[in-house]
Design goal:
It is a single chain. Helices cover 49% and strands 21% of the residues. The protein is of the alpha+beta class. Strands 1-2-3 form a 3-stranded antiparallel sheet. The relative contact order is 0.23.
């Protein structure tokens, strides 16, 4: 099953920071629950691989261009069967 995680960076919190916060949140949730949650486990693994292998400099510059223009941005991280194990899509979000 394809997993998707949405991260919304800002001028004060880049995509890497948002991914680290989400990783910590999911890890905390997994540690709190008594039984293993397969969905949370998959989410944690996707975030781990992303944090270990993504080119955050490139992602930051792509997002910052939109953010400094006053746009809201969402980074969609999807699991993938091909290396590195995920796909990234950067999308402008409508509205405020």
């Amino acid at each position: 099953m394809m997993m998707e995680i949405k991260l919304e960076p800002s001028l004060s919190h880049c995509c890497e920071t948002m991914a680290k916060r989400e990783y910590e949140r999911v890890l905390g949730q997994l540690l709190k629950e008594m039984e293993e949650d397969g969905h949370l486990g998959e989410e944690l693994e996707l975030l781990r691989v992303f944090l270990e292998s993504a080119d955050f400099g490139q992602l930051r510059s792509r997002c910052d261009d939109l953010l400094t223009a006053g746009k809201r941005v969402e980074v969609r991280l999807r699991s993938s069967g091909s290396a590195p194990g995920y796909e990234i899509e950067i999308v402008e979000i409508d509205g405020v």
